[in-house]
């Protein structure tokens, strides 16, 4: 009698497992693959990802070409931050807001994936595209005369933390914006501040340079610049007794944590009027 009951329980458990379908990891990967296929159909996003490295090389060579590791470091730090703001930040913002307003995510919440996993699965697709873009940039610049990084670890850490922060900032912008029609306006101030701030991290007036360091994404540009050109490039002589590299890391982690907290508290699965 006991054996029969055990067999029945095992059979029902197996049937329940079959009913539950694939695990969460498999579903997230499936969502990421689907998003990648959709990205491949967006010609504008692909054009930016593939041709941005060539465009930036052209700008460098048409203007005053950097000379020496320090100048190359400062230039590449800014250029890599441009890439982070254009692909993971802007593309993710428009994608998340469009999916939310068309209630795609709301319908997908009927699957085993929770809300955070749905957003993460969508972001992974753009993260893959961004990684390919930055690898192309590194290859193109190196082949056209840029020196190899003096500290590759700083370049990798700066690019990875910057990528994570750009994705989280995109979710933050969507969370605090009512609808897809408004998101282009709410994403622009942060984009403009980051572009300007990255140009000012070595500004002669220290107060201006310190203020620039506090702008989200600028610490990532500073880390990448220091990785290519050495620790003397970018921000220095901070008003606090903290090494600039440590300050960059702390600021990137802090901005990511704040953006995540606000996003979790304000996110809605439907557009707001």
From TrEMBL:
Main location: membrane
Keyword Transmembrane included in the entry's annotation: yes
Highest taxon of the lineage: Bacteria
Compartments where found: Membrane
Topology term for the membrane: Multi-pass membrane protein
Name of the featured protein: ABC transporter permease
Coiled coil: none
Listed InterPro entries: ABC-2_transporter, ABC2_TM
Short name of one Pfam family: ABC2_membrane_3
Keywords assigned: Membrane, Transmembrane, Transmembrane helix
Membrane-spanning intervals of the chain: 45-64, 76-98, 118-141, 153-176, 183-201, 245-263
């Amino acid at each position: 009698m006991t054996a029969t009951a055990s067999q029945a329980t095992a059979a029902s458990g197996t049937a329940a497992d079959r009913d539950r379908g694939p695990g969460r990891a498999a579903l997230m990967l499936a969502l990421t693959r689907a998003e990648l296929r959709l990205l491949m159909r967006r010609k504008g996003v692909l054009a930016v990802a593939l041709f941005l490295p060539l465009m930036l090389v052209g700008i460098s060579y048409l203007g005053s070409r950097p000379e020496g590791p320090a100048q190359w470091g400062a230039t590449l730090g800014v250029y890599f931050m441009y890439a982070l703001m254009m692909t993971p930040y802007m593309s993710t913002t428009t994608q998340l807001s469009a999916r939310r307003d068309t209630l795609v995510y709301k319908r997908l919440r009927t699957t085993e994936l929770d809300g955070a996993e749905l957003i993460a699965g969508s972001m992974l697709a753009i993260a893959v595209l961004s990684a390919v873009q930055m690898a192309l940039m590194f290859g193109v610049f190196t082949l056209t005369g840029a020196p190899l990084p003096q500290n590759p670890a700083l370049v990798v850490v700066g690019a990875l933390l910057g990528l994570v922060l750009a994705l989280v900032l995109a979710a933050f912008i969507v969370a605090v914006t009512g609808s897809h029609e408004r998101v282009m306006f709410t994403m622009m101030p942060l984009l403009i501040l980051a572009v300007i701030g990255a140009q000012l991290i070595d500004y002669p007036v220290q107060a201006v340079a310190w203020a620039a360091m506090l702008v989200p994404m600028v610490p990532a540009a500073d880390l990448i610049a220091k990785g290519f050109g050495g620790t003397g490039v970018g921000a220095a002589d901070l008003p606090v007794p903290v090494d600039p590299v440590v300050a960059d890391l702390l600021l990137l982690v802090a901005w990511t944590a704040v953006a995540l907290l606000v996003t979790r508290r304000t996110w809605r699965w439907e557009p707001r009027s």
